[in-house]
Amino acid sequence: MTSEVSPALLVDLYELTMADAYRQEGIADRRATFSLFVRSLPPEWGYLVAAGLEDCLSWLQGLHFTPSDLAAIDQFKIFPPDFLDWLAKLRFTGSVRAVPEGSIVFAGEPLLEVEGPIAEAQLAETYLLNQMTLQTTLATEAARCRHAAQGRAVMDFALRRVPGTDAGMKLARCCRLVGLGGTSNVAGAVRYGLAPSGTMAHSFVQAHADEMDAFRAYAQVFKEATVLLVDTYDTPRGIERAIQVAGEMRAKGIELHGVRLDSGDLGPLAALARRRLDEAEFPAMTVFVSGGLDEYKIDDLVERQKAPIDGFGVGTSLGAAGGAPTLDSVYKLVNFDDRPVRKTSTGKATWPGAKQVWRRTDWTGDLMALAGETSPDDSYTALLEPVMHSGLPTSRGKRDLVEANTLFERQWLALPGPLKRLRTPALHSVEPSAALRRLTAAMDAGRPGAVEADPKSRPPS
Amino acid sequence: MTSEVSPALLVDLYELTMADAYRQEGIADRRATFSLFVRSLPPEWGYLVAAGLEDCLSWLQGLHFTPSDLAAIDQFKIFPPDFLDWLAKLRFTGSVRAVPEGSIVFAGEPLLEVEGPIAEAQLAETYLLNQMTLQTTLATEAARCRHAAQGRAVMDFALRRVPGTDAGMKLARCCRLVGLGGTSNVAGAVRYGLAPSGTMAHSFVQAHADEMDAFRAYAQVFKEATVLLVDTYDTPRGIERAIQVAGEMRAKGIELHGVRLDSGDLGPLAALARRRLDEAEFPAMTVFVSGGLDEYKIDDLVERQKAPIDGFGVGTSLGAAGGAPTLDSVYKLVNFDDRPVRKTSTGKATWPGAKQVWRRTDWTGDLMALAGETSPDDSYTALLEPVMHSGLPTSRGKRDLVEANTLFERQWLALPGPLKRLRTPALHSVEPSAALRRLTAAMDAGRPGAVEADPKSRPPS
User: Fold this and answer.
1) Cα B353–chain centre separation
2) Three-state SS for A163?
3) What predicted TM-score, i.e. pTM, was given to this entire model?
4) What residues of A are in contact with residue B119 (Cβ under 8 Å)?
């Protein structure tokens, strides 16, 4: 294994060049607000499950450049020595408001907003986007698989296919967040308190003289926990052999757990397995399937084929490596030096100002308002809450994964069915408040897209 | 940041359950060979660039379960105490043969083969697949972008969008491997010796009274290294302002580096920027573009539009998060207890036995042979070489990234153009040797798919 990366170096070079420019201009401490949001949802996605905040707050709280970090940056020969001195003292002293992890959010709504000295808040862009994008994608994809399975167990089998070990760990975390059934990832199960899940590989069957020997050997060791993989050579024959071994074990007072199918036409094969297990008087043995599954295939098996499947193991698709879409997430400056800012580039215009999102408690729509606005009326609740103040997490910034899961479960129960649909979901209404519209219009009427000219924000000449 | 993951726990649970079953059967030490390969290439990909071996060898060499790992596994209440004792003593004692990193390989060809006691070799499956799949995907995608750019610089701007920090680091590594121009990822530049790359963000322009102020402030600090981002408000106007600031700096004896376009119709805008820079007598200033690029868009700009672009910054697509396809990689048992093994599941059949790949030096085809076969004739060279022996890397297993890049450059130069094509590439011929075909036929004629029944491979009863 390569050694651990210094967290502070997980930044894009331009965060450093801008910080130095701000410093040399003498404006590095001017206050700024950045808003992190997803511009538009992938075509078939009706919602997002916000995730990643805990790692972002930890990164901000721990932000510092070590002597070896500074020596490495010095090697670039880009920066003057006084910038390195400045970096050595740098800590994150700003504040963060965010939607709690596990919250359901929609396009354009801030997942979090960072307020602080511009050089500090800018520096956080890369890591915050990296983690919020990754974890929100993984949590949403996992929630979609859970929805497709309609109460059947869904297990994370993706560690081998997820892009890298960080994504593998964060996937296990997100599976815990959205209440999936378990994970094959031992480290993920350990760290995030998810049930460990797994049975045997085809290689185990191949390493035995024949399939029966493999089944007997495995059942002998794992007894009631045994799930036999029946598709290594010929699935119908594998099912019969599993039934035979289950009978042998029953004679010893042991009831096997089930069978797993990992290839072929899963619906009919699951039906065959179910019928044969029932006929052989093993109605309690479960049928577990895996192999190239995603939310659409799970939905097809459950909803259209009514396949008698008890659980799904999902790999590639849950790992978001090609299965799930890329989120169009951005981290945009919305306030600088107490003035709202907006960008007007074609197709990339942003709403100005720090925001609050108000959600109607009956889920009929959200209102995107300026952060200073009060609740429109008591049919609304606010989504963003203070999670970090002057560089330290607030009590709300210390929610653990169990609390986040509880919050998710509550919102998941309330989330209207049309928004949960796997294809062509309903569009949730997110309206700007009157004040946000007025501010934007006033800015556009003045000097389009720019902060109003203001002598105090000019660089010293 | 969450604390470092214990590497040994980056396994799927079933690696542990199988290890315990093998142990209880008394066959955990029987020798096995597993072959890691990619079953088929993504539709538009003509080749793969092998990558990830260094991390795999490090993982194997460092493999051990710490007392806290064992305590965590014990919490699962799945395993008996003597299995934990066995795990505590476990080290990887096997051997690895592999194609060197940076090698061009094709579908079905082993990237690496692990030979050793079956429980050890099986345990490595998850981590090896995770890293080889990730890094081979990233290296290949980076090579495709390099090919599309036809000698122009390609920079990795993906850290914010790559799925997690491990993938971000490995991307920088793979960019170094295939000779890309630089990375925005500071940690990646530091660790892998890639040039750090980056300029300014839109937020920097927005944080100034107007665009001119921002350009002047940045140029004042970064002088000859300055690349001005000209699309925050209105690109043609941004280009004129960049020219004006370039003129002001020239009056001070400083020549700016260039401009960057990050939105809009990049081809015509680059042509406009080039024309205006030339007219204003800044022919040495470069035009750099970014924003939603992938190999196809780069190819369109370079090959079809002949856009006068000097460099490309690539984000999402290079990060493989939805941009690049998932590789259909597998880790299959091919030998057990000195006997070849193959799997015959529908659509998932594998060639038996440990392999060597022989490549014709004129790239007219590869021969997939059994590992014991000698060179067909001297027009062939062998691709797999011993990189680890009895748990320790050989001299060939200690190649560094610079050597791997040298090897890549040599193969890249030789790789025929039709295989490099971005769309509908030629199909490289990979033929099984006569001996491999004979072995497979003999196995199928005997007992389809299974190891021949052999009393010594039966579990003790």
Assistant:
1) 26
2) coil
3) 0.95
4) none
Instruction: Find the helix packing angle between A165-177 and A401-414, rounded to 10°.
Output: 60
State ipTM: 0.94
Residue A303, amino acid: E
- Is the Cα dihedral B63, B64, B68, B70 positive or negative? positive
For A170, name the nearest residue in chain B, comparing CA atoms only: B164
Compute how many other C-beta atoms are within 10 angstroms of the C-beta atom of residue B81: 9
Residue to test with chain A: of B15, B57, B137, B160, most A Cβ within 10 A:
B160
Q: In chain A, where does the domain assigned CATH 3.20.20.70 lie?
A: 151-314
Residues of chain B with CATH 3.20.140.10: 7-138+326-457
Tell me if B144 sits within 8 A of B49, measured CB to CB.
no
CA distance A21 to A23: 5
Question: Which CATH number, 1.10.490.160, 3.60.140.10, 3.40.720.10, 3.20.20.70, labels domain A151-314?
Answer: 3.20.20.70
Give the chain B residue whose CA is nearest to the CA of A122.
B203
Residues carrying CATH 3.20.20.70, chain B: 141-314
Mind telling me how many Å the CA of B9 is from chain A's nearest CA?
A: 5
DSSP state of B12: B
d(CA B104, CA A236): 40
Q: Is A47 exposed, middle or buried (0-12, 13-18, 19+ CB in 10 A)?
A: buried
Judged by CB atoms closer than 8 Å, whether chains meet at B346 and A263 is answered as: yes
Size of interface A-B (CB pairs under 8 A): 382
Domain A7-138+330-457 indexed as CATH 3.50.30.20: no
Distance CA A114, CA A98 (A): 9
∠ Cα A305 A310 A312 (to 5°): 85
The CATH code belonging to domain B7-138+326-457 is 3.20.140.10
Contact state of A326 with B161 under an 8 Å Cβ cutoff: yes
CB nearest B458 (choices: A184, A206, A209): A209
Cα–Cα distance measured from residue A232 to residue A263, given in angstroms and rounded to the nearest whole number: 9
Amino acid at A191: R
* Nearest-CB residue to A1 (from B7, B342, B457): B7
Determine whether the interchain pair A7/B22 forms a contact, defined as Cβ–Cβ distance below 8 Å.
no
Choose which CATH entry (3.20.20.70, 3.50.50.60, 3.30.450.40, 3.40.1010.10) describes domain B141-314. 3.20.20.70
Ordered per-residue pLDDT tens for chain B, 461 residues: 445 789 999 999 999 999 999 999 999 999 999 999 999 999 899 999 999 999 999 999 999 999 999 999 999 999 999 999 999 999 999 999 999 999 999 999 999 999 999 999 999 999 999 999 999 999 999 999 999 999 999 999 999 999 999 999 999 999 999 999 999 999 999 999 999 999 899 999 999 999 999 999 999 999 999 999 999 999 999 999 999 999 999 999 999 999 999 999 999 999 999 999 999 999 999 999 999 999 999 999 999 999 999 999 999 888 865 455 678 899 999 999 999 998 776 666 789 999 999 999 999 999 999 999 998 889 999 999 999 999 999 999 999 999 999 999 999 999 999 999 999 999 999 999 999 999 999 998 875 444 433 333 333 33
Q: Where, residue-wise, is CATH 3.20.140.10 in chain A?
A: 7-138+330-457
Contact A184, A169 (CB under 8 A): no
* Contact status, residue B269 vs residue B297, Cβ threshold 8 Å: no
Q: Which residues of chain B does A199 touch, with a Cβ-Cβ cutoff of 8 Å?
A: 14, 17
Give the gap in angstroms from C-alpha B298 to the nearest C-alpha of chain A: 19
How far apart are the C-alpha atoms of A359 and A110, rounded to whole Å? 13
In chain B, what residues touch A118 (CB-CB under 8 Å)?
A: 203, 207
Mutation target to probe the A interface, by most A beta carbons within 10 A, among B15, B101, B165 is: B165
